[in-house]
Each structure stands twice: as C-alpha cells, then as structure tokens.
Design goal:
The structure holds 2 protein chains of 2 kinds. Chain A is α+β, with helices and mostly antiparallel strands. Chain A contains 27 helices and 24 strands. In chain A, strands 15, 16, 17, 18, 19, 20, 21 and 22 form an 8-stranded mixed sheet that branches. In chain A, β8 and β9 form a beta hairpin. In chain A, α2 packs across α3 and α14 packs antiparallel against α15. The longest helix of chain A has about 40 residues. Chain B has one domain: Winged helix-like DNA-binding domain superfamily/Winged helix DNA-binding domain (Arc Repressor Mutant, subunit A, Orthogonal Bundle). Chain B has 5 helices and 3 strands, in the order ααβααββα. In chain B, α2 packs across α3 and α2 crosses α5. The N terminus of chain B is likely disordered. The chains are: A alpha+beta, B alpha+beta.
C-alpha cells in the first residue's frame, strides 16, 4: 500500500472500516454459497473488530493518525483557554511579523542579488587611505578618465562598468512649464551587455555610445518607468525629453527585472556617461565602478594592477596642484584599492542604513525572544495544570515521546496561527517603513518581493520559534510522574524555576531594547533640536540652470525680478543652498605662506544672502555688489577660531584655491553640508567671480540657486509662479529643481527619525510583553502556592510578609535580568556608536531611564498578583483542599 | 486433527504459492484453494487468514484491489508483487531445507 494512500486513509477512517467489513461480508457470502451454515461461518471468522484493528495498522500511516489526533486535541486545548491563547498568538504574531518585515527590508537592501547575469562575480571598486582632510576614509567615487584606464587594463579578465548615482532630475517631455521628476542614472555603454540585459523594446546602449563627449544624446527607460509613466506604449521610441541643457531621444526599454544597480532607488532613465560634463573631467569622482570578473580569474593580481593604474592616473592628475602641501598629496596617493563583493549592487542607502537596519534586526530578535519566553511560560503553566491528564495518559501506556509530540503539536498550532497573522503584519509593515525612509515627495523604492527567500525565512522562523518556546515545556510536562501527579501532590516548585529563569531573560532583553532605543531617541532629539544658525522656514530653493552660461548681471536681474513677485519677501543667490549636499573646499594659506593642512569650505553667495538666511553678522559688513571672488569674503566663526585663533580677522587676508581673499565680515556658524558633523570652517565668497585676473569682465555662470523667503507659510505655493516667471523673463534660464530649505534640514534627520520611531515601537512592544510575562508568572505562582499562603495566614503571618514572600523571587529575577541587560547593552551600544549623535552610552542618565521604566513596569505587572495573594481567604482554601 | 499445527508458520508460504499459480484471488478463494490442493488436509483458519493477508500487504509482498463481480458486488482480490515473488522463493527454499532436515532425522532416528 503506497504511502500516499496510507496518508490519505488517515482522513477517511470510516471508509476504511466499511471496506474491511465489506470484504468480510463477501467472504461470508461465499462461504454460505458453498453450502456452509451461516452461524458456523460467522463464528469461524470471528469478530470483525479484530480485523478492523489489524487492517487499520496496514492501511493507515500511524504517525500521521496520531498527529491528526494531537492536532484536534491541541486545538481544543487552545480553544479552552481562549484569552491566553489569543494573547499568546497575537504577541507571537507581532514579533514574528516584525522579524519577517525586518528580514524583507534587510534582504531587499543588502542581500538580494541584482537580477543580472553572474551577480555573484560582481565587485565594487573603492579606495581607502588618507583623504585631503587628513582623515582615514574609504571612498567609492571614480573619475571617468581613471575608469577608462582601469577598464582597458583589465582586458578580458573582467568587465568594468561605470554607473553614476541615480539622482532625481527635472525633465520635460513638452514645454518647460510641464516638468516632472525622474531618477536618471548615467551608465557606461557596456553595462547592459555585460549584465546580459535584453531590450524589451528598441535597443540598449553599447560600447559605441561611449565614444566622444556629448556624442550620444539617447536614453533607455527602465521597464518600471515605461509601464508607470507611458502605460507600456510602444510609440515611446523616438520621443524626446529635456533634462538640464540636453535633449535626449528615447531609443529603448530595458527588460523587466532590472531597476538599476542601487537598491533603494528604482532608476527611471539610463543615460550614456558621455552625455555628462564629468565624462572628460579628471577631478570629478562621480561614478561607481563595478567589476564583473570572468570565472576563474585570480582577483589579487588584477586588483594590484588596477591599483597601479589608478595610482599612476592620480599622480599625473595631482602634478599640477600647487595649493596643497606636498606631504598631504603624497599621503593621498598612497591609497589601497579594494575589491568588495557587490552582488546586491551599491547604493548610498546601503551604506547609510546598513548598521541601522542591523540594529533594528537585533531589536526585533529581542522582541521575538521575549515573546517566545512568554509563550514558553504559558505552555509550562498549562502543562502543570494538565499534569493529571498527562499522568493518566502515561498510566494507560503513552510513551514519553508521545507526550512531547502532543505538546509540541499544540505549540506548532500556535506558531502557525501566529505566522499567518504575522505574515499580514509583515506585508503591511515593510512597505510602511520603506515609505518613510526618504522625504515624502521622493520615497525610497525597494523591490520587496514576497518570494521563496521570504517564504523560507518564514518557515525557518516557525521551526525556530517552536523549538524556542515549545521544547522545554514539552520535555518538562512529559517528565510527569503519574503516581505523584494523580495523588495531586506534585511538587509546588515544579516548573517555577524555569519560569523564573525565563523572566530574568525577558527582563534582560527588554532592558537591552529599552536602552538601545533610548539612545536612538535621544540622538534624534538632539539632532533635530540642534541650533541651526539660520532660519529654514518659508525658504523656497529654485535650482536654476542656464542653457549657455549667463553673466552675473542676468542672474542679479532675475533675483530682483523675483523679489517683486507678490508673496515674496526677499531673494538672494547662491551656488547651492546649505545642507543640500554640495561642497567645495581648499587648503588655506595664511600670510602668503604655503597652504596648511586643514581644509576650509566655500560657498558663493550674493549680497543680502545673510539677510535672507537670517545668519547673524558678528563683525564687519555684508558683501556688496561690487565685491568679487577672488577679492572679498565673509568667514564663519569656526574659520576665525581655526585660522585666526579667534581674533577679529576683519581686514586681514588669506589664500584659498590659489587666490587671495580679504575678510570683510565674520558671520555666525551654520551647518554646511550635514547636520551630524561638527561645524566646518566656511568662507562665503561673492557670487560675482572674476575670470582669473581681477579687472577682466565677470565670469558667466551656468547654474545657481535662488533662495526665496516667502511671506506665506507654505513656500511651495509660489513654486509654479516663480518657475514661470524665470522662463518668461529669460528664455535661456530653466528651473531644474524646486525644494524648500525645511525639507533639506528634515532630510538630514530622516534616518534618525526612522530608527527612533521603530525603536520606540519595539520598546513599547517589549515592555508590554514583559509586563504580561511577569503578571502571568507571578499569578501562576500565587495560585500554585495558595495552600502555603493560606496556612501562613492562618498561623498569623502579617500581610507584609506574605507580599514579600510572593514578590521576592520575581524582583530578584528583575534585578538579575536588568544587570545582565546593562552588560549586554553596553556591548551592543559600542557597536552602533557611529549611529548616535552627541549621545554617550555610558552616560548614567541613559542607563537610569530604562532601569526606571523596567522597575515601574514590573511593579505594575506584579501588583494584581500580590493583591490576590493578600486577599486569600485561608478558611475557604483549606476547606477545599 | 493437526491441521492448524501443520500450518503453523507456513501460512504465508501457502498463500504466496497459491497466488503465484493463480493470480487475482479473493480471500475466500485462497482459503478454498489451500484446502483443495492439499486434498482437504490443510485448512487455513479463517480467523488468521485476513490478518496474514493484511500483514503481507503491509510488507509489500502482495497487493490488493477492488473488482466488480458478475453479481454486482465488489470483491477484494490479491496478487503477488515482485517482492512477493522473491519472498516466495526464499520461503520455498527454506521449507525445502527444513523438510529435508526433518526427513533425515526421521530416517536416522
């Protein structure tokens, strides 16, 4: 009889019995037909029950049958304790759902291989060494000319691919009035071929598209963008769009699964690298370099060769640099080239969120352990309550493994119910979190597939959870001693020791979660509340590009015109606005000497910019319209402290970028490119740049940002009006991006906000679960000891002694757990230190807060059980016993 | 009469042998065939035939199937499997060895 039919027969026992009866009846019929006496024949055959049993064994998979019986029984057990079962399933579901959700995020961002050919042979190139700022760092940006040399050096041993960041650009398919945003990524022509990506439509780029600067004004769309923006319209081929100064023609659509090489961003438009100004620029390190090694190629010799090629390139590039100290340049050249496996691509989001996500993963695991401990305690308590039933089962011949199976099946039922609920939670939670990673108008997009990987993780989780919370209680319950249990005199301490151990563990993990999340929350609060030094509200930023470079007077007039608009308070110009990501730096030379070793940063601004930004002027005067760069400059307080020992520098001169500047004013500090780093020395130089020598006409500018302080509360309300005004007034100027300074500031705290939010959520869950656990265990222990308590009360023990008796152990466990939690927490905090902002994990207040919260929770959770113990009525208890 | 004793331990062998000669028999027919071919000397006890059939089915020596009879009722018929054939030859040679040995004892005693 095949296994399959034996399995199937489990679910049709009635039919099986009927068949056995039918066969016996057929036998009798034959016997009677051959002339035997019916009575005699029936007697000779014997009772059909015997056959049923023997036939059953043959035709039914016994283990499955007992499993089904256990499932029925387990289900009835769970239903009998409805409230506790639902509470256990819900808490487990929340924890398991969080785990799966965290796994989906981490997998999508960090682990899942790109949908390209040979992703396992993909490496990312980066360099580590001392940067120009003197700090040791690893940097993965490369200049295209450098990339080209390395690509040629690699020959046929490996394919090198250059990809830019996928940045959000303003593009337009029609008039400039109808701009829209899309993520565009510059890629080297060989990328599609190397990755084995086929066109869904038209053609993709080839090496021929990399030939000469601006030689290939073509674009390839991603399938996702083609479907969402154009509804898969095949006539999209040949359409053109404008982006910045260039017009691109759409020549193809890449096949479906490929969404770029940067998890976190779904690229909409691929452009050839030759269309960027960086194509020939040796100083612009704007490309990531990916290397696809041919199988079997030794990596180390290749790495060394690439390193030598790149070093030669840098040596050549830095030959002409005069305004930097030689020894810093030499140290910079001595960089190590790294080949890091990059099967899941490279993205900024990966490096920014790697540690944060790992941390969230750990918190989630803690919550899961807490939930498991709760359920284990629940099962232990139930097992003890069922001691008589189990003892009876043993007495009538059940083996120990049979009892273990009985209880494990019940655990399994609980775990599966929780897993189903948890799956719904995870399906909702992961996209919810992803949507909050970036600013609302530009949400991060992770490909969150619910596929075999997630399913396998879920299954492994279920098995793990059953092992975690099911095995110990099952073993303990199965060790029941029938004689003791049936007499009703089981040891009152049975099961309690394990439950108290679980409590200590729960408290330790709970403390850990509380501690780490309080560090995150404090970090976020300190970062969000840090003084800015300027006022970001009601500031609209219009990033504007010129078709051809325009003389400063055009930009000035435009600023003038914008300030005449209704609803506009003031307008100023700058190269880019603070905290929007731009940076420009140089070593500083003093008293005409050689450049020093400290970097200072620069920003071009127009007169009145300070006023618009509300940055206080501390000494001297603001820039004037006849000031130029090089020529005059404003410097911030940190610049003064760094280079002039804090003495008033107004009137003094310094050198940057090989030119001399005279300081005309000192302004207050403001963060330059990031909120987390300490204030940098910054020089604000006039937007009016002279071509190298003073006296010549001013340099024409290609781009600038208009900073507009509006009167109304919502600066974006004016966005359309101002955009139109710029294009109407000067056909050569286009707004390429509109944002607000508020957004720029918020963007810099978004990771901290997200981590703090998640950490707070998990803290709440952990505290709740731990409280339920404490309550449950103490309640159980009071119930179990009610005889002892009643006797003590009957012999006159004071109430305070009773309260101490029942709560002493549990508080000992809380203290033990908290102690372990402190040790674990300090270790963990050291690992995530880089994520904190001005928060020290060893700060006593950081330890005090979670400890206080745990103690408070413990008191609240323990109170009902203590009250119950105090209200024990000795006469009633002792009479019933 | 010693017919049950004579069958002790050899019921399997008889059932397998009958089925190897005349495949696709139902339980009653197997019993009848044993009685018939042994000249009514051997009778399979009806009470132990079916458990033996079930046991051999579990071991995979025989397989069962329901067929419709002319009378319209169903019968459960049995036939030998490949494993059953192997088992039969093993049991046969064991039986032969035992009976040769017993005969020798009887002769020389």
């Amino acid at each position: 009889m095949s296994l399959l039919s034996r399995l199937a027969n489990v679910f049709r026992a009635d039919r099986l019995n009927r068949e056995i009866d039918e066969e016996l009846q057929a036998h009798l019929d034959e016997a009677i037909a051959s002339g035997r006496d019916p009575e005699e024949a029936r007697r000779a055959l014997g009772s059909s029950l015997r056959y049923r049993e023997a036939g059953h064994r043959v035709r039914v998979a016994g283990w499955l049958e007992s499993l089904v019986a256990d499932l029925h029984f387990g289900w009835r057990q769970l239903r009998r304790n409805k409230v506790t079962s639902i509470a256990a399933a819900l808490s487990l579901a929340l924890a398991m759902g969080s785990c799966v959700g965290a796994f989906r995020l981490i997998d999508a961002l960090l682990w899942r291989p790109l949908p390209v050919a040979h992703a396992d042979h993909l490496y990312s190139l980066s360099r580590s060494g001392f940067g120009f700022n003197g700090a040791f760092q690893t940097f993965d940006g490369w200049a295209y000319p450098d990339f080209k040399l390395m690509r040629d050096a690699a020959g046929d041993r490996a394919q090198l691919i250059a990809v830019s960041l996928a940045l959000r650009h303003d593009i337009t398919y029609g008039s400039d009035q109808e701009t829209e945003k899309a993520h565009a990524q510059y890629v080297s022509g060989s990328m599609f071929n190397t990755f084995g990506i086929k066109p869904a439509l038209g053609r993709l780029f080839t090496e021929a598209d990399d030939n000469a600067p601006h030689s290939a004004p073509y674009a390839v769309l991603s399938y996702d963008y083609w479907a969402n923006r154009f509804g898969k319209d095949p006539s999209v081929l040949g359409r053109t769009f404008r982006m910045g100064k260039d017009t691109f023609q759409i020549i193809g659509v890449a096949d479906k699964p490929f969404t770029g090489t940067s998890p976190g961003v779904v690229t909409a438009i691929f452009l050839p690298v030759c269309m960027s100004d960086g194509f020939t620029e040796p100083n612009a390190t704007w490309l990531n370099t990916l290397l696809l090694a041919r199988p079997g190629v030794a990596l180390e010799p290749l790495r060394q060769e690439l390193e030598a090629v790149s070093r030669a390139f840098e040596t050549n590039r830095l030959k002409g640099v005069r305004n930097a100290p030689r020894k810093l340049l030499d140290r910079f050249l001595n960089q190590h080239l790294n080949l890091e496996p990059a099967s899941s691509g490279v993205s900024r989001m990966q490096s920014e969120y790697r540690k944060a996500l790992q941390m969230i993963g750990i918190l989630v695991a803690m919550v899961l352990l807490i939930a498991c401990a709760n359920v284990a305690n629940l099962m232990t308590a139930q097992g003890a309550a069922r001691a008589q039933e189990l003892a009876l089962r043993v007495s009538i011949g059940a083996g120990r493994s049979r009892l273990v199976q009985l209880i494990l099946v019940q655990s399994g039922l609980l775990a599966f119910a929780a897993a189903i609920l948890g799956a719904f939670f995870a399906a909702w939670a992961a996209p919810f979190v992803v949507a909050r990673i970036n600013p609302p108008d530009d949400p991060a997009r992770l490909v969150l597939a619910a596929d075999a990987r997630v399913f396998c993780f879920g299954l492994a989780l279920i098995v793990g959870v059953i092992l975690l919370f099911g095995v110990l209680p099952a073993l303990r319950a199965s060790a029941v001693r029938p004689a003791m249990a049936l007499k009703g005199s089981g040891s009152p301490h049975a099961g309690r020791r394990m439950m108290f151990g679980m409590i200590a563990m729960q408290v330790a993990f709970c403390f850990l979660v509380l501690f780490v999340s309080s560090l995150f929350v404090a970090s976020f609060q300190r970062l969000a509340n840090r003084p800015l030094g300027f006022s970001p509200d009601r500031l609209l930023l219009l990033e504007t590009v010129a078709q051809n470079p325009q003389p400063p007077v055009v930009w000035d007039q435009m600023a003038e015109r914008l300030s005449d608009t209704g609803g506009v308070d003031k307008v100023a110009l700058c190269g880019w606005s603070l905290l929007t990501g731009g940076a420009w730096n140089s070593y500083v030379s003093l008293n005409g000497g050689p450049p020093g070793s400290i970097l200072a940063f620069g920003l071009t601004v127009s007169p009145g910019w300070l006023d618009v930004m509300k940055i206080p002027l501390l000494a001297g005067r603001d820039l004037r319209s006849n000031d130029t760069s090089p020529g005059q400059a404003l410097v911030n307080q940190t610049f003064v402290n760094t280079f002039f020992n804090g003495e008033n520098p107004v009137g003094k001169s310094y050198g940057m970028w090989g030119h001399t500047y005279q300081i005309v004013g000192v302004v207050a500090d403001a963060p330059y490119r990031d909120l987390r780093e300490s204030i940098l020395p910054v020089a604000y130089v006039p937007f009016h740049e002279t071509a190298d020598t003073p006296g010549l006409p001013l340099q024409a500018e290609e781009q600038a940002t208009f900073v507009v302080r509006t009167l109304g509360q919502d600066p974006l309300a004016l966005a359309g009006t101002l955009r139109r005004k710029i294009t109407d007034a000067h056909a050569g100027l286009r707004v390429s991006n509109i944002s607000t300074e508020d957004e720029a500031v918020r963007d810099k705290t978004i990771r901290e906000r997200l981590v703090a939010m998640l950490a707070l959520f998990f803290t709440g869950v952990a505290l709740l679960l731990a409280a339920i656990g404490l309550y449950g265990v103490l309640n159980y222990s009071v119930l179990q000891r009610r005889r002892e308590i009643a006797i003590r009360m009957a012999v006159g023990s004071p109430r305070s002694a009773i309260a101490r008796l029942v709560s002493r152990d549990i508080f000992a466990m809380v203290v033990l757990g908290a102690g372990a939690g402190v040790l674990l927490g300090l270790q963990l905090a050291r690992y995530v230190e880089p994520l904190f902002y001005k928060v020290r994990s060893t700060d006593p207040s950081m330890l005090g807060l979670p400890a206080g919260a745990i103690i408070a929770t413990a008191v609240v959770a323990v109170l009902p059980a203590v009250l119950r113990a105090l209200h024990t009525d000795p006469t009633e208890i002792l009479r019933t016993e | 009469m010693a017919r049950t004793d004579a069958l002790q331990g050899s019921l399997d062998l008889l059932v397998l042998k009958i089925l190897s000669r005349r495949p696709r028999l139902h339980g009653y027919a197997i019993m009848a065939a044993i009685a018939d071919t042994s000249g009514e000397v051997l009778r399979a006890e009806e009470g132990s035939l079916y458990p033996a059939l079930y046991r051999m089915e579990e071991a995979g020596w025989i397989r069962a199937e329901w067929v419709k009879k002319d009378t319209g009722r169903r019968a459960r018929i049995y036939e030998l499997t490949a494993a059953g054939k192997k088992q039969l030859s093993a049991e046969e040679s064991r039986w032969q060895a035992v009976s040769v040995a017993i005969n020798r004892v009887l002769r020389e005693a």
